Amino acid sequence: MPRATCLLLAAVLLLAQGAARAADPVPIRIGYVVTPPELQPVLFARPEVTKHLGKSYTMEPLHFKSTPVMITALAAGEIDIAALTFASFGTAIVNAHMTDLRIIADEFQDGVEGYFTEPYLVRRDSGISKVEDLKGKVIATNGIGSGVDMAMRAMLRRHGLEDRRDYSVVEVQFPNMKAVLMEHKVDMVVMPAAFAHDPELDKAARVLFTQREAMGPTQFALWTARTPFLEKNRAAVVDFLEDALRALRWYLDPANHAAAVGIVADFTRLPAARFDGWLLTHKDQYRDPDGLPNLAALQHNLDTQHELGFLKATVAAGDYVDLTLVKEAGQRLR
């Protein structure tokens, strides 16, 4: 075979291989901590909502024990989309110097009018009737510097109380909050939606204040990604967000409530009754059906984080936002 022909065939093969690689679905690795409220592991459980999955992208949900660990994975290139709380987002910008991080979509919000807001509970027999009564008491938080921890500190500071000087804080995982309150080991706990709707707890405890009262509406969790990944894979990410919005709307449709509860119950291996009365309803935290975060609330949350000393510098939220992808995805569904 003539040398020119061999070179031509080799070039054609290289072009073909390059085209095949270009056509391969883009792998999207997305992190999560707990389901619910995060839906990543079950989001695409219904195949009829995923138009692009397996074609332009693949999706792999990866579990992390906390959002700070997710920041480390994002920095190491081990994850593509990180679901961060507003507190972890601020930390990623200021402490991890991740200035190429961008908010690409809403995950869920707390304190939206008419929806669930996390309650801070005291025992009915505790004698605690106002925030000032927490002086000298022990308060449980899920983690120092977490979103609910900052809301608690903001509320107590407003009433003249400061950590260590006026009260003590201990870290307790959410599933154990009820037990430590009922056993008189702490005087106040905070409950996410997954644990707040408990008739036994309602009989023994009452709400002293809510996160909305402490901090106003909170842009609690966000989907974030780094700009090099977004620039390289924009088309695939828009396809992914289109499918994610379609799936979210399926989950939020009251007609699909029983099926949605069943999917979450199967994944968590908990009884459906645990979720039936509140999950993905107005008794749950708000999820924007267009995937758009509340940036004004986010800015207020970040400012509070700075004022409480958990951020060394202020963060201008608008400098770290790229909602063009989710807006393009949303336009396709109209």
Provide the CATH architecture of the largest domain: 3-Layer(aba) Sandwich
- The CATH class of the largest domain turns out to be Alpha Beta
Shape call: globular
Q: Tally the beta strands.
A: 10
At the fourth level of CATH, the homologous superfamily of the largest domain is: Periplasmic binding protein-like II
Helical residue percent band? 40-55%
How do the helices and strands follow one another from N- to C-terminus?
HEEHEHEEEHEHEHHEHEHHHHHH
Polypeptide structure, described:
With about 325 residues, the chain is an alpha/beta fold. The protein has 2 domains: about 25-110 and about 220-330, D-Maltodextrin-Binding Protein, domain 2 (3-Layer(aba) Sandwich), CATH 3.40.190; about 120-215, Periplasmic binding protein-like II (D-Maltodextrin-Binding Protein, domain 2, 3-Layer(aba) Sandwich), CATH 3.40.190. The chain is about 40% helix and about 15% strand. The chain has 14 helices and 10 strands. The chain has helices at about 5-25, 65-75, 85-95, 145-160, 175-180, 195, 200-205, 210-215, 225-230, 235-250, 255-270, 275, 295-305, 325-330, and strands at about 25-30, 55-65, 80-85, 100-110, 120-125, 140, 170, 190, 205-210, 220-225. The strands form 4 sheets. The protein has a 3-stranded antiparallel sheet. α10 crosses α14 (about 325-330). The radius of gyration is 23 Å and the shape is globular. The chain starts with a helix and ends with a helix. Mean pLDDT is about 90; it is low at about 5-15.
